[in-house]
Each structure stands twice: as structure tokens, then as C-alpha cells.
């Protein structure tokens, strides 16, 4: 990924189409570059279409995520911008999400098979989260940007796509090319330029024996 150029406007905001490498996390221990560079944008290029080869690789990465007893409880709805399916997914998003996510080339719904043959799939949510994470990392490695959302109407997704009671929508992911921050509303610019933060590892470890 290229580093791009950047300048500052009078309000102190970064004025550029910010590539992921410019948002690289400052980590306390070394991690893979792609993990440090991955971040969740809300500014997508509304004119670009999806790179189909990159999408295929992201889906393949999700396919090979770890899964309990090889049960593979995840399912995926891929909705390209301009399609009826995209409009259906967009219509289920919570207010602020719907204001920007429609610019992404794709809206991808990750669905967990939470019951099978009448039995609960205990690890379905965990495994589906792993599939989504693998998708995200591969997408970023291939130059796509992503943003995962929990703010959507799960019942509306289930109704729109006629999902059975065995399947539970877990998240919606916006996927596409990074947009130009200079064209975004001020609220989005401020969110885009907010510092990247995580709590210290010491506050996460319950036990470190």
C-alpha cells in the first residue's frame, strides 16, 4: 500500500484520501503489518466497483477460518451497490450507519447457524466472528477498506432474505475502496481523524500466571 500525501486544513483535520498505512496502530509489541494497518473507515469511494479478485480472496480467507469440529457455521450475504439486495441491507442499518455505508461497493452480512438439527451450535457466534475477521484481514491485505457494524435490524435482515430460525445475522460489513476525506461531511472527517486507541494489555488480562 502506498503512503500517500497529506496536508492539514485550517481546522487541523487531515485533508487527503487517507490510506490505511497512515492510520497504522502504535503497538506495545510487534504485530504483523497488516494487523497494525487495518482500521475501520466510514469514508468509501461511491463511484468505484468491487475488485472481484480481492473479494474472492477475502471470501476464501473466511472459508479457511478455524472452526469447532469443522462445523463451519457461518453464512455470508454479499450485496453489491446498485442491487436490490444492497438496498435491502442498507434499509436495515441504524440511522448514522445508513448515512455513510451506502457508498461502499459491498454490504456483506455475516450470518451464524446457531442451531442445527434442533441442537444449539455452541461455538457458532465465535466461529462466525473468526470468519469475519479473516475476511477483513485478507481484504485489507488486498487494498480494500472495511467497516463492521452491529447497528442494524436483525429481524429485518432475516425477513428480507427469508432466513430460517436456525440462522442469526451477526454483523454487516461495508467493503470497498477508500474514499476522499475532503468530500466527507465534517462529522465523518472528525471521526476519521480520531486517535486510534485500545486499552492496555494489562487491563485485558484477567490472569497472566
UniProtKB/TrEMBL annotation:
Q: Which residues form the Nitroreductase domain?
A: 36-89, 95-176
- UniProt entry tagged with the keyword Oxidoreductase: yes
> Sorted alphabetically, which keywords does the UniProt record give?
Oxidoreductase
Q: Which GO terms describe its molecular function?
A: oxidoreductase activity
EC annotation from Swiss-Prot or TrEMBL:
1.-.-.-
Pfam families membership: Nitroreductase (PF00881)
What family does the entry list?
Belongs to the nitroreductase family.
Name this polypeptide is given: Oxygen-insensitive NAD(P)H nitroreductase
Q: Which gene encodes it?
A: nfnB
